Amino acid sequence: MIPLKILNNYKALKKTYTKNSIVFNEGETARFYYQIKKGDIKMYNITEDGKEFVQGYFSNGNSFGEPPLFGNYKYPATAFCVSDCVIYKIPKATFFDLLKTHPDIHLTFTKLLCKRMVYKAKIMKELSVYPPEHRILTLLNHFKESSSPEEIYEVKLTRQQISELTGLRVETVIRAIKHLEKSNKLYIKERKVYI
Fold it and tell me: Does the keyword Isomerase belong to this entry (predicted)?
């Protein structure tokens, strides 16, 4: 996202988190910009019945948790380290100074936030209206469109991650993927899903 040289110019703090650590909790005030140098982050909520609902996964080079910085909102989800992580963090005021000084980076963030808003709108519609196969296909097509593959896209998500992102049980995801393969909407080769 933000080049390392610029992060260093703005004195970004590099912090190490161990696997299963929490970077921030849902409901906390947003005070920092976060960018992953190495590792994997999962942002999730816990529903009233104790079920985990995943908002998104982020990995090397990705930023996460920025929308609340722009609106003085509290974090709408918890950021959890799926693996050991090294993360750059910049205080909110410094991050805004960086954006003012680098309009190209600011534009990149505007595009990123728009992309995330479209994703959220798609997923909300899917969760409230459509059957499992449709939900999964919409999710996979979104990732395919976002990565701009030539023709065939290898889905990098596990069945568990698809389950967490769609609010479906893993067993339902497995059955739905098999059904989608039978109807030629995707195909499976060596347990990997392609669309």
Answer: no
Identity of the highest mean pLDDT range in 48-62, 77-91, 153-167: 77-91
Structure tokens at 134: 């449709």
What residue numbers bound the domain in which 161 lies?
130-194
Q: What is the pTM of this model?
A: 0.73
What are the beta bridge partners of residue 52? 46
One domain, residues 56 and 8: yes
Which CATH number is 182's domain given? 1.10.10.10
- Distance between CA atoms of 156 and 153, rounded to whole angstroms? 9
What six digits make up the tokens of 170? 């893993």
- Cα separation of 120 and 128, whole Å? 12
Question: 90 and 32, same structural domain?
Answer: yes
CA–CA distance from 5 to each of 11, 77, 85, 96, 193 (Å)? 10, 30, 20, 17, 37
